[in-house]
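Have a close read of this protein, sequence plus structure tokens, and explain what the tokens say about the fold. Thanks in advance:
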Amino acid sequence: MDNRHAIGSWLSGPRAAAEEAGVDFGYRGEQLGLPEEGPGSIARPGRRLAAIAVDWGLCLLIAYGLITHGYDQATSNWALLVFFLLGALTVGTVGFTPGKRLFGLRVVALDTGRVSPTRALLRTVLLCLAVPALIWDRDGRGLHDRLARTVEVRN
């Protein structure tokens, strides 16, 4: 029975094992002073992934239709450039991309609330590299958000 408990804690992960030991992690965003639910709470991963899929699809359409005129090999490279420009310009000015707006999300700076163009540029560069966006903290923020001192919240 002892082996079964050890394997079960290993399969459920370190967070579940720590919670069983009495560690209270709180809710996502509590450390940042954000509400648990509703407007201003941390955006859920499903909405975030859906928003980025919409943005990427839009950028592919723009690259395919307006820039490469159907030349398939260069479309992905141009789409990444369009994605970078879309993210840097829209997040740095209005705080969201078309995909984020569609799913009711926005990006805010932790200290000022409004994302400066410099932070938006840094966040977008790291997002285009993909790996920083795949490394999350306990609040569900990607490394790109942590380094830019931003957070993606629900509207």
